[in-house]
Amino acid sequence: MLRGSALAKVDDKGRVKIPNLFRTFIEETYGRDVFVTSDSGACVQVFPLAVWIEKEKKIAALPSMDPSVLRYQKVVNYFGQPASLDDQGRLLIHPLLRSHSGMQGEVTVIGQQIYLEIWNREKFEAILGSDPFTDEDRRVLSSHGI
Fold this sequence. Notes:
Blueprint: E1 5-10, E2 15-17, H1 20-30, E3 33-37, E4 44-48, H2 49-60, H3 67-79, E5 81-84, E6 90-92, H4 95-101, E7 105-111, E8 116-120, H5 121-130, H6 135-143
Antiparallel strand pairs: 1-7, 2-6, 3-4, 3-5, 4-8, 7-8
């Protein structure tokens, strides 16, 4: 399970070193192949390739002309590319996604159970400040037994 967060840096070549907190689990469970994408352009999403393939199977079972399905496929494929972690655990974020998501300098890598999100640290902290976790959020989660 991918959980928690860690800081990392994007180097001048557009590579981010996946923190060992996540890298070990990904490599031991799934191998080095991943799918790097985004469903918004605001952050980078890194799916182990096996997880992404299962997601694609679910998408393929949906009505192919559903506008939401079409929009989702457009955006994740526009930003998406297969990639592999190198021997040092680095991952190349391709220029289009790097530009849209502000991937430069210090970033925050967040475990989202089955995939990773990578955010420009300043952007993510601004979002936390402007859209905080609230008592209403707690009530909604409580109603789901969490």
